[in-house]
């Protein structure tokens, strides 16, 4: 069951987590585990990637858990999770300390405002790319647009919106034959959390 | 104690809303953290998201930021555990069985029906961040500039953000 030693797994996962700046990007895992080390086959990776996207939860950590489990069983999943979350969490707590205790005061506040505006530009592009790659047909666009209006401008609670819209979407998608599924493009390497 | 339990519970159910990229949970996370529980201000929330975007690892470390702001290191630890642990267990169980499940028709229909909802939630996340982060012409210009840089695919996203941030800082200082 165990394909690699836990120590090697931890080392590679820590490095992958640390180098995936700007939000976890699954492409880094593909590069580290499939292309450079051949620990995992491409089709296995795609399967774990799909699972991590479909399931609720931060998908970058879902992916790390699924890959770690594949490589070394339950200990691999546990250590895979810790290896990608802990280093970033420690760095973030350090940054949060500085930020919240006023070390970011004065002109650094202006820097944070500029950085935040830039982040909006990034997430906008990421989202538009996913819209283009995954929305096909009027039904999907309608469901996405209403969901957006409800949780964005209208600020309605997400749980209620998801329950209603998921039911509506299921009904709509059962009623008519499916448009060509854009599965091949479902990859979302920049939008993972 | 009750406060810590409330924080943990909130991030636990928020983690289950984290579909289609962490961005999808941002509207509800902001609503809970800012409007309902008052753990931090809207400005701090957006800055926290920016910091977690610039920090290595998952963006959803924003949970650790909110928890730390609300209740110090223990709050950060509990919020982080709530965000990552239960969904990780789920990921391990499902990935174990996925080989058998993936071919079933209900799985395909559910996936196809849920994608538009996830996309709508992500767009809501962009809106929620923009509502606080874009408040005048310079911040709008910076967002557009970064978007263009990212679309071009010539610059890594982190570099684009850092460059735009520095530019804005130099111009408004």
Write down the Rg of chain B: 18 Å
Q: What is the CA-atom radius of gyration of chain A, in angstroms?
A: 20 Å
Which stretches of chain A are poorly predicted, pLDDT < 50 over at least 5 residues?
181-193
Largest sheet of chain A: none
Largest beta sheet of chain B, briefly?
Answer: none
Task: Specify the number of helices of chain B.
Answer: 7
What general form of chain A does the structure show? flat
Proportion of helical residues of chain A: over 70%
N- to C-terminal distance of chain A: 28 Å
What is the first-to-last residue Cα distance of chain B? 43 Å
Largest interface, Cβ cutoff 8 Å: A-B, 100 and 105 residues
Protein architecture, described:
The complex is a heterodimer of chains A (193) and B (173). Chain A has 193 residues and is mainly α. Chain A is built from seven helices and no strands. Chain A is flat, with a radius of gyration of 20 Å. The C terminus of chain A is likely disordered. In chain B, α1 crosses α4 and α6 packs antiparallel against α7. Chain B contains seven helices and no strands. Chain B has 173 residues and is an all-alpha fold. The chains are: A mainly alpha (193), B mainly alpha (173). Chains A and B meet through α1, α3, α4, α5 and α6 of A and α1, α2, α3, α4 and α5 of B.
Describe, in short, the structure shown.
The complex is a heterodimer of chains A (193) and B (173). Chain A is 73% helix and 0% strand.
Task: Explain the layout of strands and helices.
The complex is a heterodimer of chains A (193) and B (173).
Chain A: H1 6-19, H2 26-35, H3 42-54, H4 59-100, H5 107-134, H6 137-151, H7 158-175
Helix pairs in contact in A: 1-2, 1-4, 3-4, 6-7
Chain B: H1 2-16, H2 26-36, H3 42-54, H4 62-101, H5 105-133, H6 137-152, H7 157-172
Helix pairs in contact in B: 1-4, 6-7
List descriptors:
heterodimer; A: mainly alpha; flat; disordered C terminus; B: 173 residues; mainly alpha; 7 helices; 81% helix; 0% strand
